[in-house]
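From the shared-data thread, chain only:
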Amino acid sequence: MTTLPQGLDEFVGLWSIERRIDDRMLGLSGIFAGTAEFMSDAQGLICLEDGMLSYGSADPLPATRRYLWRMAGGRVEIRFEDERPLVGFALNTPHPHDRHFCEPDSYDAAFDFARWPEWTSTWKVRGPRKDYRMVSSYFRVI
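Structure, as tokens:
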């Protein structure tokens, strides 16, 4: 029987993250390697990604990103740091997915919790100047 995360509190802590990027528009690939730390705040969670991004033949660069995770109507809503909505998903399914439109681009997100507490997110981004796929793998550190 598959165990699935039941609440935001199950994400709290430090996760190792490896993200593979396939940029079909530019014909480049990249890897982000680092951590994703999920910390509680008054409205839910703050997710802080911190690591190094290697892209194409360029020297690796430090990269950080901050997201907000909130519960709304039984779903996890992932938001940008400024509270703009990104995507959402239900915790009670092993393979939730969602789509975000940011004209003229579309962002398709698929999550895989079938091997919880290991999990992945896959993003397919398409638009006039974008065509890439990112697969992020998360492994609990603490």
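The radius of gyration is 15 Å.
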